[in-house]
What does this fold into?
Amino acid sequence: MVDIVKEEKSVGHLINGEIKYSNGQILDVYNPAKGSVSKQIHVATRDTLEDAILTAEAAFPLWRDTPVLKRARIMYRFKELLEKNSDRICQLVGEEHGKISHDAMGELQRGIENVEYACSSPEFLKGEHSKNVGPSIDCWSEFQPLGVVAGITPFNFPAMIPLWMYPLAIVCGNCFILKPSERDPSSTMMIAQLLHEAGLPKGILNVVNGDKDVVDMLIEDQRIQAISFVGSTPIAEHIYSKATANGKRCQALGGAKNHAIIMPDADLDNAVNQLIGAAFGSSGERCMSLSVAVVVGNEVGDLLVSKLQDSMKNLKVGEHTNSSNDFGPLITKEHQDKVTSYINSAEEQGATIVEDGRNFVVKGCEDGFFLGGTLIDNVNTDMLSYKEEIFGPVLQIVRVKTMQEAMNIIDNHEYGNGTCIFTRDGEAARYFSDNIKVGMVGINIPVPVPVAYQSFGGWKRSMFGDLFAYGPDGARFYTRRKTITQRWPSNGVREGKQFSMPTMK
It folds into this structure.
């Protein structure tokens, strides 16, 4: 395997098990902590993508017929290689995303857990069988792969989110084309190479780097049977609409505005610790970040804000190489400016900036794309900063009088990805989880990301499509059911003509 850590400062494509370079556009990849270009990435051309699709199509027939246990054994070896190379992978995540080493390690571990789930494919790909549904008639269902499928992944989890997709798709018998984020491609490329080192035959996983034009080519190509996407809601909606219009199966996970309800009986010290990590971890660049705390009662609100303010004074922000840091920079200068503009708008619309992360500078990284943790109080639902996904280290406080008012606020927001409640009241928690219109719910759990053998997805405009990501829904997304009804009549037995619908009457 090529050691990407020591490789030249150029990122190409992985096609048919080999690194290839295209003659198209070149894009810069930044080290966000330094604010400087670290390497360059080759943008796939139409010829590049054509090469990847033809390669995948050629590999599919043999891979489809490979026994599922043999596919699973490759995933076992892949898991071992991911663990063995975890430090190198996390180094690449830190260099290009800015994520602190301990956070990158947590991301990678979540990805590895999805590989572990893929290892159980001999179990979840078993069909369903019914014997003697009629005289000497058996009926069964089996789950067959789709063919060539594709995934489009975001910058915020360059290791984990691709691992949500292609291990499961591949173990189900498909061939996969991955288009990772052009902002931090190196860890994704290295992980894909490790899968080949684990024994994956050439052509089954191909990685093409690029931008929007590459995405559009994947959506429009009739040979791609399914698209899996994670990113912002406007792009998710566009991809879902275009992909389904082109006859593809599609799951498109979009943005979020995740709320936490803080009840008067909550353990506030615990809630503060959980809110701090959930709001500012990974610089808030998570679709499951908690960006709004809805506090029931002004007295509790005042105490919560005071405790948050005290705790935030100890936040450490800096480079990924210092594991004592809590979070690092934002991904680009443009995104740093965008998050700053939301803080500005909240202030202009009458909110109170309790802790201000604007103009935050890290010594030795003066050109980095940093923002300090920001706490904003007295936010209301008419404010721009409340309505839109900020995707930065910003926590906003909304104050209400009742739990039902808090739930109404959450239900009325266009996003429905994740939410949680902090309370000691089991009845309130049960009512909340039963009735809230959000796809993933936590009870005293601030980031309710499901484990790998469940499935991940939001409601409303946080998710387009019928099947969630990874877990059981992922296995069904990457396969299609075929139901076979079979009869072997006794020798010499003949039936007469039958024109009505056959029944078991």
User: Anything to note?
Assistant: The chain has a mean pLDDT of 95. Residues 4-254+462-483 form a domain with the Aldehyde Dehydrogenase; Chain A, domain 1 fold (CATH 3.40.605.10). The chain has two domains: 4-254+462-483, 258-443. The longest strand covers residues 137-145.
